[in-house]
Write a structure and sequence with these properties.
17% strand; 224 residues; 8 helices
Length: 224
């Protein structure tokens, strides 16, 4: 018996398969479905994007289930696992993840599939609950507040000082982000932090020089 025969007998044959029954597979799939449905609901609640991406949310449960199936397959046969690693290595995903929280949920879904496929569902459940509580607590903390954008259109250049004076009156933070002058008109975009939004807009609207004033919220970076 040469070295190759010893390797085949001790490694490939010894780890050719593990005990996988229909019941164990169904239980793993059921737990993966339940936890992934939980992830689906949490993402729907905590999503803060301007436009809710339903397709991305639907992909989270699918990823968890597919990952669990892959882990079960890898456990069942060492030869298949090596082939699957080679097959998956040629796959390229080019979808850009713009929101860091989307990346968190994506990794969460993949981790749940791996853990459930490995037969450690209790870890996936506990980790999911702890992560949910952590996200909810952090989301409610008043760490910072996103500023708003005030868009003003006036018919005289000289009205800028009066407009800034009113902004100072109601805003704890302001910064002129853009200023456009065209044929006697001035358009301004001012980043502000204000509590009494209605009073600010009403006082600006009462100015004869102001043609329009709009207040826009955004989901961008916050200002401390």
């Amino acid at each position: 018996m040469n070295y190759i025969d010893i390797f085949k007998k001790s490694f490939l044959e010894g780890y050719a398969s593990s005990t996988l029954t229909v019941k164990s597979v169904l239980v793993c799939m059921l737990i993966s479905v339940l936890i992934s449905a939980y992830i689906f609901a949490v993402y729907r609640i905590l999503n803060r994007n301007t436009f809710y991406n339903k397709n991305f949310n639907m992909s989270l449960p699918a990823i968890a289930i597919i990952t669990a199936a892959i882990i079960l397959t890898i456990q069942s046969n060492i030869v298949i696992s090596l082939g699957m690693v080679g097959a998956l290595s040629i796959v390229r995903f080019r979808t850009a993840i713009k929101d860091p929280m989307d990346l968190v949920f994506l990794f969460w879904s993949i981790s749940v599939g791996i853990i459930c496929g490995a037969g450690l569902a209790i870890i996936a459940i506990i980790a999911s609950l702890v992560l949910t509580v952590g996200l909810l607590v952090i989301d409610k903390l008043p760490i910072a507040r996103a500023p708003q954008i005030l868009l003003i259109n006036a018919n005289t250049f000289e009205s800028e000082d009066n407009i800034i004076g009113i902004i100072k009156k109601y805003c704890t933070l302001y910064k002129v982000k853009a200023r456009n002058l065209t044929e006697g008109h001035i358009d301004m975009a001012v980043e502000i932090r204000v509590k009494e939004e209605g009073k600010l807009l009403r006082e600006l609207a009462e100015m004869e020089e102001v043609i329009s004033a709009s207040l826009v919220s955004h989901d961008g970076e916050t200002t401390f």
